[in-house]
């Protein structure tokens, strides 16, 4: 089963984040974007149609946001939740870690470790340097 990635955000955040990934890591493959509500009112469900095949990690910007909810609803309705790993509230470090992960490592393990490491990177730096 192929491993693919989807960055789905409100507006152009997805493109900006992918630009940063390319700057840091070079070109990565199998990354797709949904930039919701940017130019047209195209239903997100139409853009999710390709998620029925392969194994996907979907990075969304907000837990409880419309995009996360629609991806979750779509995967549940299609009965493909076992193949769709949704990470809400991602950051750049998490994204890079998952994109560059060893494809022989189970995706559940990759995502869980990346989420735990990403939590450690949320730091109020002023409090650290005082």
From TrEMBL:
InterPro entries recorded: Bacterial_PTS_sugar_comp (IPR051471), PTS_EIIA_man-typ (IPR004701), PTS_EIIA_man-typ_sf (IPR036662)
GO terms, biological process: phosphoenolpyruvate-dependent sugar phosphotransferase system
Segments forming domain PTS EIIA type-4: 2-122
CC per GO annotation: membrane
Molecular function GO labels: transferase activity
UniProt-listed Pfam families: EIIA-man
Keywords: Transferase
Protein name: Fructoselysine and glucoselysine-specific PTS system IIA component
